[in-house]
């Protein structure tokens, strides 16, 4: 059985078992009220607009940088830790994929539990920071408008000198 067929079959099994809520598109999905994102800029922007806790699962390139900024600097999500096997795996044969998934699974579960635990220190901090960032993005005036307003205000202050 091919890898893609097995993935689809496993996805359907998880959906039927109510382990996954919602859909999956471009590498993101909802898991128990959390939003799993691969951290491309558009996926991350969409994730930040939700009220879900963010679980960050980057693959490569800018996704890793975006995940570190989101998880470590802004503290609005929990990144799934990946071992050296996952980070250096170039062999995408079926046994290699199974090995990667077996290594990644406990780290993924831990990240989801950490992000979803609103009584835990990290979960509470992530939720609070995410709420603040979402409000900034959704504010009535709009983020871009606020930059323009601030720029114009600063110009007026300069002209008063």
From TrEMBL:
It comes from the Eukaryota. GO terms for molecular function: UDP-glucosyltransferase activity. Belongs to the UDP-glycosyltransferase family. PANTHER family: GLYCOSYLTRANSFERASE (PTHR48049), UDP-GLYCOSYLTRANSFERASE 79B30-LIKE (PTHR48049:SF34). This is Uncharacterized protein. It comes from Acer yangbiense. The lineage of its organism: Eukaryota, Viridiplantae, Streptophyta, Embryophyta, Tracheophyta.
């Amino acid at each position: 059985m091919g890898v893609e067929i097995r993935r689809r079959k496993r996805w359907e099994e998880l959906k039927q078992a109510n382990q996954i809520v919602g859909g999956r598109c471009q590498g993101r999905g909802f898991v128990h009220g959390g939003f799993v994102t691969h951290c491309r800029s558009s996926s991350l922007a969409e994730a930040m607009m939700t009220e879900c806790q963010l679980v960050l699962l980057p693959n490569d390139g800018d996704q890793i940088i975006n995940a570190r900024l989101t998880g470590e600097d802004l503290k609005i999500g929990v990144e799934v830790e990946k071992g050296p096997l996952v980070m250096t795996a170039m062999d995408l044969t079926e046994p290699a994929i199974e090995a990667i998934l077996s290594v990644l699974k406990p780290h993924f579960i831990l990240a989801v539990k950490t992000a979803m635990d609103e009584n835990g220190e990290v979960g509470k901090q992530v939720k609070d920071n995410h709420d603040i960032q979402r409000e900034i993005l959704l504010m009535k005036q709009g983020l871009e408008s606020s930059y323009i307003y601030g720029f114009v205000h600063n110009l007026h202050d300069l002209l008063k000198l």
